[in-house]
């Protein structure tokens, strides 16, 4: 039975590595996966799912305003597809997450999403919030803070390595811009400037 999965974590936990391994497992068993990634994140090149450990694979891209049910339906018309893999799922809109849920329910294809849960200010991304509400199964991919505790938060750094407290929710970057921390060290880095209520 097809399901909608949300695999979430902080930055640098290996989400893309896990996605690429899962897609490889499908291929190894003679099945065809369909990979998608956000068009706006082109750090590894347009249409690439890439891991920090050096593996990558070509993928179709999605825009923030694109109908993903239609996109998946068109892909399924081209031939067999055993599973849809969506990288950078936090960039999805709420409507696009509903598109993915409809693809699972109406087209019978499993959809595995990989993305961040919260932004650098500790707020849910719209795509992540909707995935948390709609996913049939959720899995946390873990990484650690410098103190050894599980990292659940991320800070955005300026050019001098200082934690930023304000800014746009979306800013593409990697290790040079973001650090994953446990909640206690995130609170320290943010100077307790967390919004209340």
UniProtKB/TrEMBL annotation:
GO terms for molecular function: ATP binding; thymidine kinase activity; zinc ion binding. SUPFAM superfamilies: Glucocorticoid receptor-like (DNA-binding domain), P-loop containing nucleoside triphosphate hydrolases. The active site is at 88 (proton acceptor). ATP binds at residues 9-16, 87-90. PROSITE patterns: TK_CELLULAR_TYPE. GO terms for cellular component: cytosol. It is found in: Cytoplasm. Its EC number is 2.7.1.21. InterPro entries: P-loop_NTPase, Thymidine_kinase, Thymidine_kinase_CS. Substrate binds at residues 170-173, 178. It comes from the Bacteria. It holds the Pfam family TK. Zn(2+) binds at residues 145, 147, 182, 185. Keywords: ATP-binding, Cytoplasm, DNA synthesis, Kinase, Metal-binding, Nucleotide-binding, Transferase, Zinc. One of its GO terms (biological process) is thymidine metabolic process. It catalyses: thymidine + ATP = dTMP + ADP + H(+). Belongs to the thymidine kinase family. Homotetramer. NCBIfam families: PRK04296.1-5. This is Thymidine kinase. The lineage of its organism: Bacteria, Pseudomonadati, Pseudomonadota, Alphaproteobacteria, Rhodobacterales.
């Amino acid at each position: 039975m097809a399901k909608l999965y949300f695999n979430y974590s902080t930055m640098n936990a290996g989400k893309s590595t896990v996605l690429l391994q899962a897609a490889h497992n499908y291929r190894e068993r003679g099945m065809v996966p369909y990979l998608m990634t956000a068009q706006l994140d082109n750090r590894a090149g347009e249409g690439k799912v890439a891991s920090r450990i050096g593996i990558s694979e070509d993928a179709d891209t999605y825009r923030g305003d694109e109908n993903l049910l239609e996109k998946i339906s068109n892909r399924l018309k081209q031939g067999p597809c055993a599973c849809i893999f969506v990288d950078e799922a936090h960039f999805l809109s709420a409507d696009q997450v509903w598109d993915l849920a409809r693809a699972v329910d109406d087209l019978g294809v499993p959809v595995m999403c990989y993305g961040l849960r919260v932004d650098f200010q500790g707020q849910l991304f719209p795509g992540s919030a909707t995935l948390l509400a709609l996913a049939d199964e959720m899995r946390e991919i873990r990484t650690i803070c410098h103190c050894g505790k599980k990292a659940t938060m991320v800070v955005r750094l300026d050019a001098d390595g200082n934690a930023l407290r304000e800014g746009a929710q979306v800013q593409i970057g990697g290790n040079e811009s973001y650090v994953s921390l446990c909640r206690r060290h995130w609170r320290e880095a943010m100077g307790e400037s967390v919004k209340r209520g």
